[in-house]
Amino acid sequence: MQRSDYLLSQLDVLEAESIHIIREVAAEFERPVLLFSGGKDSIVMLRLAQKAFWPAPIPFPVMHVDTGHNFPEVIEYRDRRVAELGVRLVVASVQESIDSGRVVEETGRRASRNRLQTVTLLDAIEAQEFDAAFGGARRDEEKARAKERVVSFRDEFGQWDPKNQRPELWNLFNTRIRRGEHVRVFPLSNWTELDIWDYVRREELELPSIYFAHSRRVFERDGMLLADLPYANRGEDEPAFEATVRYRTVGDASCTGAVKSNAATLEQVIEEIAATRITERGQTRADDRASEAAMEDRKKEGYF
């Protein structure tokens, strides 16, 4: 006799949806790639891809768009995790884009390589002929995400146009593209930051150590705590000091802020996230705080 009261937890539903999306894209596209930064969202996405095809290996490579301004702990984790899974790693280097004249490095106190990633990413997608790129975006990050589709169309220039989004009825995804076009795919669209942390706890996933409280030399700029690193261009009026901090997200170290925190364990981090009312990007990303339209502008340029 079959049970009729079988219920799935919220995490089970989210996991099943994401695995369905990953399998659908792997079946419909010829050369998908998973964008992997070593951050918590891409770590969860990598686990979902692992589950989607287990016991077979993940059938597509992972790609890191490397600004060259990284947290060492994240790069160490990236290389070790990729080696454990036996996945091919593609590193798209912003430094190589600068050296070849494809982009011009910013100067000044608030210079960052974050926006330069767009050209590097699009060049790598074209060179490797990727037709679908999995990204770890969540719709709770900021307002522009709510306009996104799960399978989000990019034109031959890699640009996103919110008016050109295709309808997605139920779980039916439009995967048709012409040569030179590609799509970004967001399996975590319906996840929140708290869901990510709950899943990390359930799956017992290892994260880079910077996600937990530690002592770091930082300085304050525009109300954010930035790591005192050579490429952060700290001014004489920005004194450095030791603080107990952790990171809610990882990215270009020159513009990714830390938050003061004593949350040194997974349970403490989850309690802290559950209580906060400030979004992850609003608290930790200097390049997305300039205006409410900053993220949408970057999406239209082709990076997100």
From TrEMBL:
Enzyme class: transferase
Keyword ATP-binding listed: yes
InterPro entries, per the entry: PAPS_reduct_dom, Rossmann-like_a/b/a_fold, SO4_adenylTrfase_ssu, Sulfate_adenylyltrnsfr_sub2
EC number(s) stated in the UniProt entry for this protein: 2.7.7.4
Disordered: region residues: 280-304
Molecular-function annotations in GO: ATP binding; sulfate adenylyltransferase (ATP) activity
One Pfam family here: PAPS_reduct
Family membership noted in the UniProt record: Belongs to the PAPS reductase family. CysD subfamily.
Name of protein: Sulfate adenylyltransferase subunit 2
Lineage: Bacteria, Bacillati, Actinomycetota, Actinomycetes, Streptosporangiales
